[in-house]
Structures are given as C-alpha cells and as structure tokens.
Amino acid sequence: MDISLDFQPGQIVSLEHNDKNLYAEVIQVVVSRQSCWVRPLFLVTLTEELPLITDLRGASHLLWPAQLFRPALDTEVITLWSQILAKEPKAEADLATKQQLHQFIQQVWQEYQKGIGHGA
User: Fold this and answer.
1) What are the C-alpha distances in Å from 28 to residues 5, 7, 22, 57, 109?
2) What is the pTM of this model?
3) Of the candidates 35, 39, 33, 27, which has an alpha carbon nearest to the alpha carbon of residue 4?
4) Residues linked to residue 17 through DSSP beta bridges, in sequence order
C-alpha cells in the first residue's frame, strides 16, 4: 500500500516542484480516489538568499493525488511556521497569492500528466 494513503488528518505534507515547495495540512485522505484533501499553508520559493514564504492559509483547499505528497519533517516546518505565525493571518488570500498557488498547481499538474502518459 502506498504510504501517502496512510496520511492522517492534521499531518503536514509537502509537494515539491522545481524551486518551490507547497506545505499543506491534510484534512482527509480519500482512499477510493487515492487523493488527499488538503488545506494549503504556505508556498516556499527557494532563492540564493532566504527562502520566500507566501502565506496561503486563506487559499482554497485542494483535492490532489496523494502520491505527489510526502510527509513534511518537523525540522523543516518549524522555522517556516514561526515566520508565518509572526504575521497576522489574512481572512482570504489576495489575488496575487491565489495566482501564485494556481500557477504552481498548474505546473505540477502538467508534470504529473506527462508522467502518466509515459507510464511513470
């Protein structure tokens, strides 16, 4: 059985693509669809200096293939959480934040579709 289907509600997971990393909280694993219903928390863009962290706590939830996620390590999340929690949460993500998330998800989906087409 795929380890991603063993995710638990409340667990923080990570979805990596190129220089970006989406961290999300698992709400529910939908075993019949091999998907995770997740609440985006933040998107980290790796740069040569400090990582850029975008607060996604007000963004829409996602239902996404579970196999694309990995469990996030406590050590990688603690620093990011402290930076995000130091800011006031937004009631809703602004347009630029929504566009960043949409663009990231679109890029990951295109790569995932290519992988399916090549039997990966």
Assistant:
1) 10, 8, 17, 17, 20
2) 0.84
3) 35
4) 20
CB 65 within 8 A of CB 34: yes
Residue 42 CB neighbours (<10 A): 20
Query: 20 phi and psi, to 5 degrees?
Result: -120, 155
In this prediction, the residues of the chain whose per-residue pLDDT falls under 50 are 1, 120
Q: Which residues pair with 82 in a beta bridge?
A: none
Amino acid at 109: W
Q: What sign does the dihedral 18-93-12-106 (CA atoms) show?
A: negative
Spatial contact of 104 and 43, defined as CB atoms under 8 Å apart: yes
Q: Which amino acid makes up residue 82?
A: S
